[in-house]
Structure formats: C-alpha cells, structure tokens
Task: inverse folding
C-alpha cells in the first residue's frame, strides 16, 4: 500500500506540473553564444548588483539583451550627466563643485533608469525562481552538447575559484571560461576602454617608479570609478555561473543514468534477506 501511495503522489506532482504549463523548457539551453539557464537566486542580491551597476543584475538573470542596453545607458548617461565627477567632488568635501558639475537635464533621466533597473531585476528574480521550481518538477532532459557551424558548446565540471581568478586578472576571461562568449568579448572590449580612458596602467607605472604626484595627476577619475563595479560584477558572475553549470552537469548526468538503467535489473550489492 505504501508503494502505491508514493507512486500516486509522484504522478499527481508530475500531472500538476504538466497542467500548469505543458510547454515548460528544460533548465538550460545551448546556443552559439553560450549556455543560458534558469537558476534560483536571492532577489535582494540581484537588486543589489543592479544598484552597483545597472545591467549587472540582469546579466545574472541571463537577460543579456536588456542588460547590455542598461550598461550602455549607464555609461553614456552617467558621462553626459557627470554623475561620477559629482561623486568624486562629494567624497572630497567639495559640495559646491559637485552641484555645479552635474547636468540636471541628464541626471533626472539617469535616476529614473537607475531605480527602474533595480526594481525590474528584483521582480524578474522572484518570477524566475517560480519558473525554476516548475521546471524542476517538469524534469525535462538537459542537452549536454551542442554542435553548431561556428562553435561547440557543452556542459562540464569546472572550478568556481578559477572563473573568479580569471575575472580578477582581466574581466571577461571568467565569462570565457564559462562559455558565455558574447558577454566575454563585450566585457573585454569595455575593460580596454576603461583602462585606456582612465589611464590606470600609466598611473601604476608612475607609482612603481616612485612618482606619486605624477601618478595622481595622470588618472582620469570619471572612468576609474566604473572599474571596481565592473570587476566585482564580473568576478561574482563567473563564480556563481560555474556553480550553476556544475549543478546542471550533475542533473544532466543523473537524467541520463536514470533513463539508461531504469528498466535494467542490475544489482551491485547482494540483497540482504
């Protein structure tokens, strides 16, 4: 009786998942540009990354198109409104200079986009967590290998610390490690722009040579202020993505083994009477 009850309960759960949405996809989808997947995340954490740099929270949610537009909006409108310059003057206690440098016609639009990006990432995280639960109940097979004309994508086990270290050495390399090639090259190009515009390498060289005053004068603080957020977001994204890909790999392997040996009667250990 107990066995029939458990089987009936499992059937009811699967039936509920099918009745809610019979067209739910699997947890991951492979494409030329990388591996797109559903995962369960903290809405507050995703919203916090959107506050750090608009678009980062959406990258964590695998919404790459809207995240790219938000990051481009952040850099362009921030530059036009001189938000970073005003922040630097405020940190230095020069509040009159901070007020004079801000462009209100751009600052108000920047504030609206900034707040909406935070709320949108929070809202999407809560909804995608529900989709994740339903998709897990559906238990659709996960494709482990995808062969395309210009790329080969596959799920394999990786080390989260390696992805984080790659992103620390040069943001974008961690995304290359997790097979997000489009995001990787986008991040690498922008990191070169930040390095060139902030003149950070030239400043570090002068600092190594002992020219502290020249090192400070060379720096362009407006572009320098973008870099900690981008590096931190790249490290966090690479680290968490590796963890999720490892989970997907184990799930795909479990699905394959279950399907392969479901009807076979193999006994590794002898039955105990």
Result:
């Amino acid at each position: 009786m107990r066995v029939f009850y458990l089987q009936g309960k499992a059937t009811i759960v699967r039936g509920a998942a099918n009745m809610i949405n019979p067209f739910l996809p699997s947890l991951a989808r492979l494409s030329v540009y990388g591996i797109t997947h559903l995962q369960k995340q903290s809405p507050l954490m995703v919203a916090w990354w959107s506050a750090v740099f608009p678009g980062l929270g959406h990258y964590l949610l695998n919404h790459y198109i809207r995240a790219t537009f938000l990051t481009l909006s952040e850099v362009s409108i921030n530059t036009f409104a001189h938000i970073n310059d005003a922040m630097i003057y405020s940190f230095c206690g020069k509040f009159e200079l901070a007020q004079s440098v801000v462009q209100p016609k751009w600052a108000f639009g920047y504030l609206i986009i900034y707040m909406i990006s935070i709320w949108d990432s929070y809202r999407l995280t809560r909804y995608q967590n529900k989709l994740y639960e339903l998709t897990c109940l559906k238990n659709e097979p996960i494709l482990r290998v995808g062969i395309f004309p210009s790329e080969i994508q596959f799920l394999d086990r990786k080390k989260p610390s390696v992805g984080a270290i790659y992103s620390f050495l040069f943001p974008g390399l961690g995304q290359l490690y997790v097979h997000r090639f489009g995001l990787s090259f986008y991040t690498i190009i922008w990191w070169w722009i930040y390095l060139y515009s902030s003149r950070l390498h030239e400043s570090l060289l002068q600092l190594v040579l002992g020219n502290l005053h020249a090192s400070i004068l060379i720096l362009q603080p407006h572009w320098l202020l973008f870099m900690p957020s981008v590096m931190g977001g790249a490290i966090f994204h690479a680290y968490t993505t590796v963890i999720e890909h490892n989970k997907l790999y184990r799930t795909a392997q479990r699905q394959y083994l279950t399907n392969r040996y479901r009807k076979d009667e193999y006994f590794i250990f002898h039955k105990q009477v």
